[in-house]
Design brief:
single chain; alpha/beta; 5-stranded parallel sheet; 28 strands; globular
Length: about 500
């Protein structure tokens, strides 16, 4: 049997996931992977945990041996320099020229670095790779004041990293009038800013940097309003740029603002070449989160296996803990009246802001924003995605049931079997419930090994726990009411100590 050769350019999370999915479903391909970085794929989602004691090995998604065991040829530290579409070959930096039948571009993105005078000075960093983090960590040892340019998700992650490194005087510089303008509204942003201020982070909004001061080393940010912020180091986290330069060189179609144009099969303008992850541009959209990248990987695997799975617009709902503060947005978070009814709960003392948008007839949830308390996020997202009918008093969704809390797990057990629980690994409710009933899986660790649910971003784990408990209860099995599956203590036990 002659195997088709699939060359994957890029060994990030999405490129790795493609390989994992393909070898699981078929042994009929010869897979070759080129990685630009000197190490195998690692977890970028939890990259900031590198500053909390996790090593590069801890963040690694697999061992080098895994590639060997799967028959995958891996070239690290050897980026592809040229694609010859006529000959169907790729040429690498170290001089390798290899032929492909199918090519998968998983080149990801790079940090967007604004063209500001002084950006090249010592003490200015980007926040993208483990090597970047190592440089930041080394430089921070002698720094007292640090700044991050960018108040989005990545910027706040970078700010947390500086604080974890002991730089208590940390500043966030944002050009827009609020933090996280793509995820949360003005009121939610104000609440988030208030919480971050309590934690010692200084936020500067509506700030445009004119130049970075200092002779050789960065020592100050000079703004267009003529104000000045003295600094010892600066981290740039002002967005991403899709890595499409290789595709452009090969004559593939790219978007006017970057990104390799793909159809719903993830095919580029060359039907033998696919693009997945942050480098892919689908209907004018670049998808940054890892879950849609994993879905794209699944689409390409389906196409190679003569399947018919297609990619559609992807839910960009998100839940994060930024510097210890819960932040979540889901569904249509920004729709306003009169196109919907909006219910808002705000507690400035506790730093909690909750907003839900419902249909004008009060029957369905459209979306919302949660700051400071996002415990209800997973069920709210499921309510939107599965078009569940709302209770008579929709405000109960964010205030709690007036008639007392419902039984644990009851809400999730009412979800349809095809409800997507783990979007990163495409695990639905039926898969989790059947794993409990048919295979006897009764722990989150066991469910991770069995279905991979919760092994991506980890945001679905509370829902997975509830489904395990709900299914066990429905089966008449004893459910331990413990705070953590590794210790036999309930919340009440802890409170009585």
């Amino acid at each position: 049997m002659i195997k088709s050769t699939v060359i994957v350019i890029g060994n990030g999370m999405v490129g790795y996931k493609f390989c994992e999915k393909l070898v699981t479903k078929s042994s009929g391909f010869n897979i070759i992977v080129f990685g630009e970085e000197p190490r195998q794929a690692y977890d970028r989602v939890h990259l900031s945990e590198y500053f909390n004691g996790k090593s590069a090995d801890d963040l690694s998604l697999s061992s080098r041996e895994w590639y060997d065991e799967q028959g995958i040829t891996l070239y690290l530290g050897d980026p592809v320099q040229e694609i010859n579409r006529a000959d169907k070959t790729v040429h690498s930096l170290k001089g390798l020229t290899l032929k492909y039948d199918y090519l998968v571009l998983a080149t990801g993105s790079s940090a967007f670095v604004p063209d500001i005078p002084g950006i090249e000075k010592e003490g200015v960093f980007v926040y993208r790779t483990i090597e970047d983090l190592e440089l930041i960590k080394a430089y921070a040892a002698t720094a007292k004041t640090g700044a991050v340019m960018g108040g989005g998700l990545l910027g706040l992650e970078a700010a947390k990293a500086l604080m974890d490194l002991g730089i208590t005087d940390t500043h966030v510089i944002e050009f827009a009038p609020r933090l996280m303008p793509r995820q949360i509204d003005s009121a939610g942003s104000a609440m988030l800013q208030s919480k971050l201020k309590e934690l010692g982070l200084t936020v500067h909004l509506n700030k445009s940097t004119s130049y970075i001061g200092g002779a050789l080393k960065a020592d100050a940010l000079h703004f267009n309003d003529e104000s000045v912020l003295p600094i010892d180091m600066l981290v740039i986290s002002a967005g991403i740029r899709p890595r499409d330069e290789l595709a452009k060189l090969a004559g593939l179609q790219v978007g006017t603002r970057g990104g390799i144009m793909v159809n719903d099969k993830m095919q580029t303008s060359d039907e033998a070449i696919f693009a997945i992850g942050e480098c892919a541009l689908y209907e004018g959209m670049i998808y940054g989160p890892v879950a849609p990248g994993y879905e794209m990987a699944e689409i390409v695997v389906s196409q190679l296996m003569d399947g018919n799975k297609l990619f559609y617009s992807y839910d960009m709902s998100t839940k994060l803990k930024l510097i210890g503060v819960d932040v979540a947005s889901f569904g249509d978070a920004f729709i306003t009246e009169p196109d919907c009814r909006t219910i808002v709960f705000e507690d400035t003392h506790k730093g909690i802001y909750k907003r839900i948008n419902i249909t004008t007839d009060g029957k369905y949830l459209l979306g919302g924003i949660l700051i400071g308390d996002a415990d209800a996020y997973n069920m709210l997202l499921q309510t939107v995605n599965n078009k569940l009918v709302l209770p008579p008093n929709p405000e109960d969704l964010i205030l709690g049931s007036r008639g007392g809390a419902e039984n644990e797990g009851a809400g999730v057990m009412n979800l349809p079997d095809d409800a997507l629980i783990c979007s990163c690994e495409a695990v639905d409710k039926a898969m989790i419930c059947s794993s409990v009933t048919d295979l006897g899986i009764t722990s989150v660790d066991g469910m991770k090994k069995c279905t991979k649910a919760g092994t991506g971003c980890g945001g679905c784990i509370p829902l997975v726990k509830d489904l395990i408990a709900g299914t066990m209860k429905a089966n008449g099995q004893y459910v331990k009411n413990v705070l953590c599956e590794h210790f036999d203590y309930s919340r009440q036990n802890c409170l009585t100590w």
